[in-house]
Amino acid sequence: MYSFMGGGLFCAGVGNILLIVSTATDYWMQYRHSNNYMHQGLWRYCVPGKCMTHTDSIAYWDATRAFMILSLLACFIGIVIGVMAFIHYSSFDGFDKTFAAGILFFISCKRLHRLSFLFS
Asked: Which strands, in side-by-side order, build the sheet including 44-47?
């Protein structure tokens, strides 16, 4: 049982790191314009030679930023609750920590799933 919990926590940790990287990266969209390759992320866009922050507020970019931050928080809190269950933290004894951690991971991935509809 503990090997599954340890493996699950390891996968959740790696997933949270990848979620942080994907939120922070500037390569959400890449396109070519006048023989130049440009790319943009949630926080800034880059043209050849320099990167600038987004100054305009587009609703789907704002919604994507909000969902990504909420997914990060849900995943991080799920990891904390999973570690508490793994080390038998005695607080909240009537509270099923493994179930709560699983629900938080599910909420985190459902928020990310909603993002796919914004860009399709």
From this structure: 29-33, 36-40, 44-47, 50-53
- For the whole prediction, is pTM greater than 0.85? no
How many Cα atoms occupy the beta-carbon half-sphere of 34 within 13 Å? Answer: 2
Distance CA 110, CA 107 (A): 5
Q: What are the E-state strand segments in the chain?
A: 29-33, 36-40, 44-47, 50-53
pLDDT tens-digit series, residues 53-92: 888 888 878 888 888 898 898 889 888 888 887 777 666 6
Residue ranges covered by each domain of the chain: 2-24+57-118
